[in-house]
Amino acid sequence: MIPYGDIDTVFLDVGNTLISIDFEWVARELNARHVPCAAEALRRAEAKARPGYSDRLFNEGIPEGMDLFRMYLTVMLKELEATACLPPDEFDALVIELRKVLRPAGTGASLLWRSVMPRVPEALARFQAMGKQLVIVSNSDGTVERSITEAGLRPFFDVVVDSAIAGYEKPDPRIFAHALERSGATPERTLHVGDIYHADVTGARGAGVHVVMLDPFDDWSIDDCLRVPDVWAVADLLEQGRN
Questions:
Q1: 3: Cβ–Cβ under 8 A, 6 or more apart, which residues?
Q2: CATH code matching the domain that covers 4-19+113-242, chosen among 3.30.70.360, 1.10.260.40, 3.30.565.10, 3.40.50.1000
Q3: What digits encode the pLDDT tens for the residues 91-120?
């Protein structure tokens, strides 16, 4: 059981925790290619694809040289009604074309991951008002600090840990140990919040850190950790723990 009243540090993932991909942009690119798609349908497909993406990434093993962003697009579009029905050759060609447009060679994740999720700034302000230290712990490509700066979220955070800079990535517990060392936090008084079970839950627990998982549409069929819809709900838990 998580001792919410004792938590003084909150670790937060970035992608699909604080910032989402620009679904409006992706929907426009699909529509321009005669694939009718609304941003909200794409948002729902992306969330629905997360369990399968997590399982494939961390359980099945990824061949050396695999293009992870292409895999991410593939599993997401497989859950989108307008693209799931395409013939395999058309589907693959669409993924390849979108990959070039959305993540051109030499660009970082911040080009696509740039939409601040609903009520995130308000939730972060609530954490700060409660006196919580806030720390980013993200699997990224060295651009996560730029991403949160461009999104206007950097002032909320005391420490930013980017896996490409730290040298470890979730679920390796060493990235959490690194974040604990840099922030001066202790695992028993730290709560991690993220959206991918095999990265965030497994990794945090490996470092002795408490964890809450984000599952906005109840897509994950797991029962060994608390799941909530968003970071606002995590702020509710911490406030209730103070009473």
A1: 188, 210, 241
A2: 3.40.50.1000
A3: 999 999 999 999 987 777 778 999 999 999
CB-based contact 143:14 (threshold 8 Å): no
Looking at residue 134, the DSSP 8-state letter turns out to be E
Whole-number Å distance between alpha carbons of 154 and 148: 5
**CB of 176 closer than 8 Å to CB of 203:** yes
Question: Are the beta carbons of 203 and 13 closer than 8 angstroms?
Answer: no
Q: How many residues does the chain have?
A: 243
> Which strands sit side by side in the sheet containing 159-162, from one edge to the other?
159-162, 133-138, 9-12, 190-194, 210-214, 227-228
pLDDT surpassing 80 at residue 64? no
Please provide the average confidence, as pLDDT, over all residues in the chain. 94
Evaluate if residue 178 carries a pLDDT over 90: yes
- Is it the case that residue 217 has pLDDT exceeding 80? yes
Residue 65 confidence (pLDDT) above 80: no
Domain locations along the chain:
4-19+113-242, 23-111
Are the beta carbons of 113 and 14 closer than 8 angstroms?
yes
pLDDT digits (tens, 9 = 90+) for 185-199: 999 999 999 999 999
Backbone angles phi, psi at 175, to 5 degrees: -70, -35
Q: Give me the phi and psi of 38, to 5 degrees please.
A: -100, 150
